Amino acid sequence: MRVILPGIFIFIVFFLHMPMAQADDYHWVVGKWQLSYDPDGSKTDYLEFFANGDVVSSGDYGEVRGFYIAAHGMVKAVLTVDKKDLILTFFHNDKHTQLRIVTSNSGKASVYTKMF
């Protein structure tokens, strides 16, 4: 229960401060995305966004599950890793084919490219 409550709190904060977009506004995010560029040299991993708001991050480390909200030109995802919530903010390109996220290690942008 202690793990679920912080996740619920974060979701409520997102919901109150960032209204959810209409389905037509964020349908482009649904699908699988591959890490195509990382200035810190991280191994390739994948993000899969589902229409119901779930997201799965997968790679050599296994799978990490969470949820996301897409609105206002960005995608915010909350993943729970080792009982701690990790909040990620992605920005898309004009064609909605890439998601960019600034890495905490170098402050440079990593890029995920949509596979399907």
**Number of beta-strand segments:** 8
Give the oligomeric state of the chains in this entry, treating copies of one chain as homo and distinct chains as hetero. single chain
Q: In the CATH hierarchy, what is the class?
A: Mainly Beta
- CATH topology tier name: Lipocalin
The whole-angstrom Rg is 14 Å
**Distance linking N and C termini:** 35 Å
CATH architecture: Beta Barrel
Shape: globular
Run of helices and strands: HHEEEEEEEE
Number of distinct helices: 2
Helix content: 10-25%
Explain this structure:
The chain has 116 residues and is α+β, with helices and mostly antiparallel strands. It has one domain (4-114): Lipocalin, CATH 2.40.128.640. The chain is 16% helix and 47% strand. It has helices spanning 4-17, 23-26; strands at residues 31-37, 46-49, 54-59, 62-71, 74-81, 84-92, 98-102, 109-114. The longest helix has 14 residues, at 4-17.
Features:
alpha+beta, globular, 8 strands, Lipocalin, 116 residues, eight-stranded antiparallel β-barrel
Layout of secondary structure:
Elements (H helix, E strand, L loop, with lengths): L3 H14 L5 H4 L4 E7 L8 E4 L4 E6 L2 E10 L2 E8 L2 E9 L5 E5 L6 E6 L2
Antiparallel strand pairs: 1-2, 1-8, 2-3, 3-4, 4-5, 5-6, 6-7, 7-8
